[in-house]
Amino acid sequence: MQEQSNQDGAPTRFEITEVRVKLTADPRNKLKAYCSVTIDDAFVVRDLKIIEGARGPFVAMPSRKLADHCPNCHYKNHLRASYCNQCGARLDPERAPKDGRGRARLHADLAHPINSATRIELHKAVVRAYAEEVEAAKTAGEDYRPKTFDDFDQLSEIVDDEYIEELERRQEERQRRRREARANDGEAGAEG
Ligand SMILES: [Zn+2]
């Protein structure tokens, strides 16, 4: 079982009691696996993804693509759409909300940790379960049967590069904020 604390020193108030991993079939896909996590034997979050990033596998929380309403007919369109899918009105493909450095934010997480202690705990548990599943698949070879989640099986999707970039940017942004927070704690300049 997990220790109930981590390197941040902040105790986590929950335990991840189960992680299920379903590997995707196509090795060229950057989306490596779907996961579900159970918290305290009581609450399940599905549709977490393991994505192979430039610096190793990372965990993406369940998310949805952001959309907005066409000013002409109110139909919902993806933020990058140049034309309304319903009425064909011209739309500004650059209308997505921007982050501090002017880069578009096109996705929103549906469930996510709200502090770094929980984020780290979750990430460790999910990446470990993923590594174990990859190992199990290797060991089983041709006999390997990918897991199915109890009630339905998921269609494998291709994760677009734009989404991966957005996730990596967000991670960098979090790390930057953590460094700044630490520096502001009176240790300015003391840490590399
Ligand atoms: Zn329209």
List keywords for this structure.
2 domains, 27% helix, two-stranded antiparallel sheet, 192 residues, 2 helices, Arylsulfatase, C-terminal domain, binds zinc ion, 4-stranded antiparallel sheet, alpha+beta
Q: How would you explain this protein's 3D organization?
A:
With 192 residues, the chain is α+β, with helices and mostly antiparallel strands. It folds into two domains: 1-64 and 107-147 and 157-186, Arylsulfatase, C-terminal domain (2-Layer Sandwich); 67-105, no CATH class. The chain has helices at 116-140, 161-187, and strands spanning 16-23, 31-39, 43-53, 56-60, 63-65, 67-69, 76-78, 107-109. It has a four-stranded antiparallel beta sheet with strand order 1-2-3-4, sandwiched between helices. It has a two-stranded antiparallel ribbon with strand order 5-8. Strands 6-7 form a two-stranded antiparallel sheet. The longest helix is centred in the last third of the chain and has 27 residues, at 161-187. The chain starts with 15 loop residues before the first strand and ends in a 5-residue tail after the last helix. The structure holds zinc ion (ZN). Zinc ion binds next to loops.
Q: Name the poorly predicted regions.
A: 1-7
Number of DSSP strand runs = 8
Radius of gyration: 20 Å
Strand order of the largest sheet: 1-2-3-4
Shape: globular
> What is the CA–CA distance across the termini?
33 Å
Ligand types: zinc ion
What is the arithmetic mean of pLDDT?
A: 83
CATH hierarchy class name of the largest domain: Alpha Beta
How many separate structural domains?
2
H-E string: EEEEEEEEHH
In helices, the fraction of residues equals 25-40%
State which percent range the strand residues make up.
15-25%
Structural category is alpha+beta
CATH third-level topology of the largest domain: Arylsulfatase, C-terminal domain
Helical element count?
A: 2
Q: Describe the sheet with the most strands.
A: 4 strands, antiparallel
Determine the CATH superfamily of the largest domain: Stage V sporulation protein G
Q: What is the name of the CATH architecture of the largest domain?
A: 2-Layer Sandwich
